[in-house]
Design brief:
The complex is a heterodimer of chains A (656) and B (149). Chain A has 30 helices and 12 strands. Chain A is α+β, with helices and mostly antiparallel strands. Chain A has 5 domains: 88 residues, 2-Layer Sandwich (Phosphorylase Kinase, domain 1); 171 residues, Orthogonal Bundle (Transferase(Phosphotransferase), domain 1); 91 residues, no CATH class; 142 residues, no CATH class; 35 residues. In chain A, strands 1-2-3-5-4 form a 5-stranded antiparallel sheet. In chain A, helix 13 runs antiparallel to helix 14 and helix 21 packs across helix 25. Chain A is elongated and about 165 Å long. Chain B starts with 7 loop residues before the first helix and ends in a 7-residue tail after the last helix. Chain B is built from 6 helices and no strands. Chain B is elongated, with a radius of gyration of 25 Å. Chain B has one domain. The longest helix of chain B has 51 residues. The relative contact order of chain B is 0.10. In chain B, helix 2 packs across helix 4. Chain B is mainly α and 149 residues long. The chains are: A alpha+beta (656), B mainly alpha (149). At the A-B interface, helix 29 and helix 30 of A face helix 4 and helix 6 of B.
């Protein structure tokens, strides 16, 4: 027997109370009160995973179990949702108190160090050891039971990493990315968010510029993160020193969580970072004042077309040499432009490639920037998941990134900051998946492959949050009871989902959907896929699904040419359909010997009919010929009769 | 179909037939007179029949010749004189028999083709019905298109 779907296991373990929503408990996400049916823990909450935002599988796997100072995940799976639908939930302990955002006030230096910095550093140290990041440290996702108690980090597992983080708490190189494309990042990004949180708590208010993410991001790029957040405010010296280090632009320059456990040591740590060279006068690009290579790279990332124009016209290199005094950088960019001219710009994405390379040269810390969007390579899957069916422009750009293996090129340009060999291999794999033709391939297949917890996006089963292949048969059975029977039971989403989730077990069947121009071939491939799905994952009757599938088998029935055999097949199909198992239906249409016999019989019948038609035509056209023959024979008969009479008379005369 | 140019071999046969007839008229005029009268319809048909093989004339002449055997024997027994020849040729019974036989030959030559054609058409219709039934059976069994009307 097939093992029960994970959703059933989850439902058996946790009870979700939809009537008891918990406001402000999940950092902006919807959450409900929940209880552990087996362990009896009542103080749980179930955080609803938003549509098209896959939860973080790695964190869910590595952080399983209660942990001090962190609302760690205890389980995840499909549960009930309002309006009789299904939802995907991540269950965590409930926050011990209100979020810090609910009672924002200036914190003292001692309170910040004792109740915020040290407890969070402890948590981050453990997470670093576990190999996961939090990426959700912000004012409305950090909780405190009462004054004088250490803070607790909220959940950050129900959405892609940092997806809900405002630009205030994210390093600029993460904030400039697509919200779903920020990637797992490193623990240094959590240290950065903690530094931003310390500043906000110390100030007792959120800086006005942080109300606008774009303005906050630009400010951080222009003046640096610390000055963008702190502004001209007076801060305790210890907090200012700590935050300055934690908000360093280069992640390698930020203190580690272990170092933050000893604030005095962390405060005294000095990283000799060379200050960026700054021009005397700004250079205007795309409405932005460019002072240094960092702001130039950012402006080119945001406005790539204008950036390329400025580069081609020579304005940028001229400014680099004369305004910034960085002749070396100007020469490198010139060399790159000559290389581009040599390659020719007809190649797909040649201009985008050029801009991407320029940005990496100007600012090696920057993420992959491609025609106005930015993302970290490990955020590709969740970025795809968020964009599918909603944002065509982003999908087009992501398609180009995958098709041109831009991630590999980007990684090659900054080998000391990433594992470029691994990224190059992954880029090739992504391209190979995206190039698979038909419904089982393309970007949809890639998204489902990269996001193991992304639910199937087919409208047929979207309401039931199908995450695993084993959950699909019962979802299709439920859909079969309400769906218009003319709708095909396997759409592109389901094909791509199964191809990604079945771990090659259904690869033959999903490949059958590809490159099959014949409608009957597609119908049979679809039937085989669903039959194998039932056989391997859900060996229970599915009568409604069988009826739905059988309604789409008429072309297959009609493909049999012998009418008595076809009638018998229809009768047998009705019998098998009622039983609710798909493999016998496949067996009806996959009898190769009978198929061959049918084809030969049809050929022989056609030949016989052709012969009959020819003979009938000959009979109809042979009237004149028959008349001539009749006259000839008649005349011969007359002559013969005359001759017979003469012979008789001669015989009578001779003998009589 | 009438021939536009006569066959040279047929010309020689006609010449031989003419020579035979002339020799008969010269050597036995009484016999020639009697045969000419009794086979008159057949000789007329030889002229009227436009077919190359003279099928109607052939039937008429063969039937006529069959009835002339007895009068020739009678003429020969009577000494094959011109008087006897005229007497036999004037005998209504002898002439009637000969000309009736010629008429029967003509009727047979005209009716036989009609009867044969009717038999052939009936056979063709029966075969067509048999074929149509077989075709309809195949079309129904294999879903083939019906025959065009």
């Amino acid at each position: 027997m097939a093992s029960p779907p994970e959703s059933r296991v989850f439902a058996e373990q946790f009870a979700i109370e939809l009537a008891s929503p918990l406001h402000g408990a999940a950092g902006g996400l919807t959450a409900y009160a929940a209880a552990d049916r087996q362990g009896g823990a009542p103080d749980l909450m179930a955080v609803a995973v938003p549509q098209r935002a896959p939860p973080r599988l790695r964190a869910l796997q590595l952080l399983d179990g209660r942990q001090p100072g962190l609302l760690a995940p205890l389980g995840h799976g499909v549960g009930p949702a309002p309006q009789d639908e299904a939802g995907y939930y991540v269950v965590t302990p409930r926050p011990p108190g209100a979020a810090l955002a609910d009672r924002l006030r200036p914190w003292s230096e001692a309170a910040l160090i004792e109740h915020v910095l040290r407890p969070v550093a402890h948590v981050l140290e453990r997470m670093e050891a576990a190999g996961v990041t939090h990426r959700g440290i912000r004012l409305d996702n950090v909780f405190q039971a009462r004054d004088g108690h250490p803070v607790v980090l909220g959940q950050a597992w129900a959405t892609p990493p940092a997806m809900l983080q405002p630009a205030l708490y994210e390093p600029p190189y993460s904030a400039m990315c697509l919200p779903a494309g920020r990637g797992e990042g490193t623990i240094a990004d959590d240290v950065y968010a903690l530094g931003a949180l310390l500043l906000v708590l110390s100030l007792g208010e959120v800086p006005a510029v942080a109300q606008d993410d774009a303005a906050m991001l630009r400010r951080k790029i222009e003046v640096g993160s610390f000055h963008a957040i702190a502004g001209e405010s007076r801060l305790p010296a210890a907090i200012a020193d700590l935050a300055r280090g934690m908000l360093a632009e280069d992640p390698d320059h930020r203190p580690t969580p272990a170092l933050l456990l000893d604030p005095s040591a962390a405060r005294g740590r000095r990283v000799a970072a060379r200050p960026p060279r700054r021009a005397q006068r700004p250079f205007q690009l795309a409405g932005m004042a460019v002072w240094d290579t960092r702001t130039l790279a950012f402006a080119m990332a945001m406005q790539p077309e204008q950036g390329l124009q400025a580069m081609v016209s020579g304005t940028v290199t001229q400014w680099l040499r004369r305004g910034l005094g960085d002749a070396g950088m100007g020469s490198r960019l010139d060399e790159m432009m000559r290389h581009r001219a040599g390659e020719g710009s007809a190649e797909r994405g040649a201009d985008a490639f050029a801009v991407m390379r320029m940005i990496v040269l100007l600012d090696p810390l920057a993420p992959l920037c491609w025609r106005g969007i930015a993302l970290w390579p490990d955020g590709l899957g969740s970025a795809l998941a968020a964009a599918i069916g909603t944002d065509t422009n982003v999908m087009t750009r992501l398609d180009e990134i995958v098709a041109t293996e831009a991630i590999a090129s980007w990684a090659t340009l900054r080998p000391d900051r990433c594992d470029h060999a691994l990224l190059r291999m992954e880029a090739r794999q992504h391209r190979a998946l995206a190039q698979i033709r038909g419904p089982a391939g393309g970007l949809m297949r890639l998204a489902y492959t990269l996001c193991p917890l992304l639910p199937c996006g087919s409208p047929l089963v979207a309401a039931r949050r199908v995450v695993g292949a084993a959950d699909l048969p019962p979802a299709l059975e439920a859909a079969a009871k309400v769906v218009d029977q003319d709708t095909k039971p396997v759409d592109a989403h389901i094909a791509a989902f199964l191809a990604a989730r079945s771990e090659r077990r259904l690869e033959t069947e999903t490949n059958g959907l590809v490159g099959n121009a014949d409608e009957n071939g597609v119908a049979l491939a679809r039937l085989r896929l669903l039959a194998q799905l039932q056989l391997r994952y859900y060996q229970r009757p599915l009568p409604a699904l069988c009826g739905w599938v059988a309604a789409h088998c008429q072309p297959l029935v009609d493909s049999w040419q012998n009418r008595p055999r076809r009638a018998a097949l229809e009768h047998r199909l009705k019998e098998v359909t009622a039983a609710g198992f798909l493999p016998p239906i496949v067996g009806l249409f996959e009898d190769a010997a009978a198929r061959a016999e049918d084809a030969i019989g049809a050929q022989q019948a056609a030949a016989a009919v052709a012969r009959i038609d020819a003979e009938l035509a000959q009979i109809e056209a042979g009237g004149e010929e028959r008349a001539v023959t009749a006259r000839r024979i008649g005349q011969e008969i007359a002559a013969g009769a005359g001759l017979l009479a003469l012979a008789s008379m001669l015989a009578m005369a001779a003998f009589g | 179909m009438a021939r536009s140019k006569a066959d040279p071999k047929r010309h020689s046969l006609v010449w031989l037939q003419g020579l035979a007839c002339g020799a008969l008229a010269a050597l036995v005029p009484s016999l020639a007179v009697m045969i000419g009268i009794l086979l008159g319809p057949g000789l007329v048909m030889l002229v009227l029949d436009q077919e190359p093989t003279k099928p109607v004339a052939r039937a008429v002449l063969l039937c006529g010749v069959a009835t002339v055997v007895d009068p020739i024997r009678a003429l020969w027994s009577a000494g094959h004189g011109l008087d006897a020849s005229l007497a036999l040729a004037g005998d209504l019974r002898v002439v009637g028999t000969a000309w009736s036989a010629a008429a029967a030959g003509w009727l047979l030559a005209e009716l036989a083709p009609v009867v044969v054609r009717a038999v052939l058409e009936a056979g063709g219709l029966a075969r067509a019905a048999q074929l149509r039934a077989a075709r309809a059976r195949l079309a129904e069994e294999w879903g083939l298109p019906d025959a065009e009307e």
